[in-house]
Every structure is written in structure tokens, then in C-alpha cells.
Amino acid sequence: MSRQPQVMGLVGESEVFKRMLAAIRKIAEYDAPVLISGETGSGKELAARAIHYQSRRSDKPFIPVNCGALPDLLIENELFGHCRGAYTDAREA
To answer: How far apart are CA 27 and CA 56, in angstroms?
Structure first.
């Protein structure tokens, strides 16, 4: 019985999957933003968690954000904040 490679709940045996696990390990070494895209249900959040928990920030909380639930006009504000006066009700940074 062969042992399946597994990282943070990700399980698989294909060569593509193994390359993805190697990429996750490599990405986790860097302190840089990562964009993960893919079909609904493809495991984007699992990949993000695997990167986070293998990184130097693993002792910090992982906070998933459903960007699809944010209105287009507010997504940048919700993710990155805003400066005072950036829009009508922006009273504080």
C-alpha cells in the first residue's frame, strides 16, 4: 500500500499534485503576497492555509476572506484600508 503525500489536509498522488505541494513549500519560504485562483471547490483555501502554516507567520492567525461576498467598490477598502477623506464617510485612516 503506497503512502499518499499529505500537507495540511491536502491528499493526492498525481505528479501535478506533488508539484503543487512542492510549490506550496517553496512559496511558504517567502514573505510576499500570493494570488491563488481556480474553480469553485478546487481547494484554494486549503492551499492558502498550507502556505500560511508552513511559513514564518504560522504563529499568527489565518483569516480567510470570501472576496466574492464583498461589493466591488469596497473590496480594496476592506482588504487594505483607506485614508481619511478617501470617500464621503472616511473619517479615520
So the answer is: 11
Amino acid at 22: A
| pLDDT 10s digits, 8-40 | 778 888 999 899 999 999 999 999 989 898 898
Given a cut of 80, is residue 85 above it in pLDDT? Answer: no
Angle at 66 between CA 61 and CA 69, to 5 degrees: 145
3-state SS assignment for residue 11: strand
DSSP annotation of 8: T
Residue with grid cell 500570493, as numbered in its chain: 34
Cell of 13: 498522488
Query: Where are the strands (E) in the chain, listed by range?
Result: 6-7, 10-11
Residue of 33, 58, 36 lying closest to 45 (CA atoms): 36
